[in-house]
Amino acid sequence: MNSQEAHGRTGRRHRAPRLVAAMGALALAFTGAAATPLNPAPAEARAQAAEDKQVLTVAVAQSVDSLSPFLAGRLVSTSIHRLMYEYLLNYDPETNEPVPAFATKWEASEDKLTWTYTIRDDSKWSDGKPATAEDAAWTLGKMMSDDAAATANGSFVGNFESVSAPSKDQLVIKLKKPQATMTALDIPIVPKHIWEKVTDFSKFNNDQKFPIVGNGPFVLTDYKVDQYVKLEPNKDFWRGAPKFDELVFKYYKDGDAAVAALKKGEVSFVPNLTPAQADDLKTAGNIKVNDAPGRRFFALAVNPGAKAKDGAKLGDGHESLLDQRVRNALFKAVDRDAIIDKVFQGHAVKGEGYIPPRYDKYFWKPSPDQELTYDIDAANKLLDDAGLKKKDGKRVDEDGKPIVYRVLCHATDPNDKAIGQYLEEWWGQLGIGMDLQCSDNVSDPWLAGTYDLAFDGWSVNPDPDFVLSIHTCDALPATKEDVGATDNFICDKKYDELYQEQLAEYDPAKRADLVKQMQSHLYDLGYMNVMAYPNAVEAYRSDQIKSITTMPTEAGNIYGQDGYWSWWSAEPVAADEASSEDSGSTGVIIGIVAGVVVLVAVGAFLAMRRRSTADERE
Amino acid sequence: MTQIAPVPAAPADGPVPSGPPAGRSGSGNRTLTYLRYVAGKLLGAVVSLLAVLVTSFFLFRLIPGDPVTQMTRGRPISQEQLDALRLEFGLDLPVWQQFLDYCGNVLTGDFGTSYQFRAPVMDKIGEAVMPTLLLTFTAFVIYTALGVFLGTRSAWRHNSRGDKVNTGLALVLFSVPSFWLGLLAIIILANGVGPLPGLFPTGGMETGEEGLDHVLDVAHHMVLPVLTLVAVDYGQTLLVTRSALLDEMGSDYLTTARAKGLRDDQVRTRHAVPNALLPTMTLIFVNLGRTVAGVILVETVFSWPGLGSLFYQALSVPDLPLVQGLFFFFAATMILANMLADLIYPLLDPRVGNQ
Description:
The structure holds two protein chains of two kinds. Chain A is an alpha+beta fold. Chain A is globular and about 80 Å long. In chain B, helix 5 runs antiparallel to helix 10 and helix 7 (178-190) packs across helix 8.
């Protein structure tokens, strides 16, 4: 071999391994792709095998805390329980009024202390056994007698004296004192014959044996932690079986990845979109964005001089905020229209009363005279009246120190931060300083009362009892060391009286009127100022879901409803109507994979050739 | 592999005492030295583990927030229920009592029950460790091999155009945030752009297949997260390998090897690389220890059900037993990986054990 030849070979020798490496990397990258045509993408393969099984896939991010209805508290878990187990009553998707579910009729005794529910006779557990009043009595009784079983829903039975099932179709609950929320007992009823075998309710997660026996519209058939929850229709469901062949909650921990999956058609539905994601999806094909009035309110809470029930003072809320004129002035300097436009980018409704307008029965808004409209001059006058003097353009307290309010903000919520910046500007015009304290964990200063104002928000249920109860004196912590159910330490005599009155009022119209009076009083107090009702922004594939019930039906949300209406009612697009975008791409995939196989073969050939010539030379 | 590094020579001359032959005596001494070295390292590891045990308990009690209120915030709950939960979790006991219970339980392999998932901590870790290892270990093998391979090539032909492109690309990818690269991969390779179809799933680990389908399904889901991890991580190995090899390249023994008439390839693979590999080995073992800690950002972007996202969820409560268990597990793995590296060094370079 002459030297020139050797040189030439050396050059090739250096290229060949590099080529092989590149081939290797390519081969790796396409290993998975190879699975696509040869073993058609698993999901597709399954669909084909099951003769076009129609699957409704919902993207979720929150991990299931427990599949036991006695332990689960997170929205994802309780939503799934709604599908697996019947509750005594449900809420009408149109009116939010209680409608029959496991119980067909319900009535209270004259003395308001005994409630009798008639249990339906056409509901049975998915293992074939009949579902009766006995199951309901056992479920509620267990929560009353076992602390561990009361973990999730114990507060519902706190006022129960006794529970019994005198017959298969009669459930009788005796109360200690009247309770208007007896038509809003959101408790999954479980099969006694299965659950009475559970020994320790604090550790039993109901996630080992599938399918899980239930009597709701769906039966849970499979669950893999943080991967998916699969449910199949309960063919015997008394209201009629759901129309999709399978309902899958699939995990997407990243919102943008979920949106990508929706665009691709890998999921049928994505909840909790950001304004940017919603705008992006509005222009995408085959996708419908549902921008609906939400269940939440978004408020500015004021520290009312936090105290425990025993009178012990908590924290160090600013004294000046105890003057109602100061609180009202601060809220008069909040431009709610700007917040809706600039911060929520139109995906919210301007805040008024405490309960969002989607619950029209309880919705209240201030009269024009009462409303704290945006008016900086009027706000300045209120502060002058309250005696907060100005010094060098800044309001000062009694000691002559400039007033700077600490505002608690959730570091994880971009809305808090954005509104905080606006508040700084608006309150600046009043001569009031602001210290925006954003933190991952606002609970500590919140519970300790070491703040002046805070961004606050709650989801409201069709029965507003809970969100009303968190502002009663009874919700305050017993002592400084305890933690109460209170939201921001409000304790007001008149509000409490109205609260007790509405709780004992069984006439729906009269109760609604009392709830409105409570909201009016809360508004005037100025400790809880609702700025906005954020919309539920979600999107679904219109080429997979033909129709779906929102709640309220007119304009409402799909995910996290107070009922099973959305997933139960969802109708699939018939297979022949569905777009067949994917079929065109199969050819391309086959082409790519074929190309890769050829490249890898060439690479391997070159590598072997190089090795053999190298061996020859040694 | 030819080992060129100097090896302590057995006495070449002088009277040989009776007893075992000199060579075996040297080997015996070496074994003894090695054993002493191993014992030292093992002791170090045990001490580190004990330190981790104590730290893991106290460190996370510094996180603000009461687990019970964090877990129950936002839903109707009575004071009695809150008290019952505190009692159940043992949060009503004094801290020293909690610590003693914790130590006692850990010694029997019991890390307690997760507050939020109501399941034994070891079960939760067990569920998440396999997905994490599958992902990170696969990526680790590929990026290590790729890094060493490309690093060697780069050093050997340093300042060439290939070297500049190689190191430039590695540096760029090394500096790119992994979640951003992951999202880009999803948008381009999972969703498809223009004529390129979506080739891979957008997230998750499996769709719930059985048998061989399951294996293919998981492999299909793994491609994008592995690619992302490899792209972000291979640069470090590449750069370390390259610089170590560059240090060796001027050495006399390479000139000798060339003078013997060895081919360039052989000089590199048989002489230069083995000697340059030691710093890379350190990095490899650090990376190996890291594989278990999960890759929280990549796991989140690709919705991979691994330890990284479990740790995040545990911290946000804070779910003390789960956080402690995970922290101990991560630290123990790191300590073990380092110990393994320490034990292997003397085998790669006999000078290490003798110092």
